Amino acid sequence: MRRGGETEEPATYERVVLKNASVYHYMKVCLVLENEGTGLSAVDLKQLILTGLKNLYGEVGAALSFDLLKYDEATLTAILRVYSRGLVKLWSSLTLLGSYQNQTCAFRVLQVSPFLLALSGNSRELELE
Fold this sequence. Notes:
Layout (H helix, E strand, L loop, with lengths): L23 E10 L8 H21 L3 E7 L4 E7 L3 H10 L2 E2 L2 E11 L16
Antiparallel strand pairs: 1-3, 1-5, 2-3, 4-5
């Protein structure tokens, strides 16, 4: 109670939870091939990912929209952009993809974030001098 007979109103709180507020998710992935000398162009990589989606989810999966934003042919590392609602489908198809041109392969998901800037650095690879 305050002075003068005034009563103090109780504090009110509002809880706000944002679920999947971002439209896109970004994935940094690396392709590991059995024969390390095999070259793979950006077009071939995108086709490989589409094949994985089609094998797992059929024609509907192959229609999933994703973009190959950056690709390094030397390290076979790529940054992919996918709508947040399609992240699980893309990730699962990459995980289950096991061959490319009759050789064993595997995708390694290095980083995933709703923010592209978060993929610009990795604290695990930070070298202090």
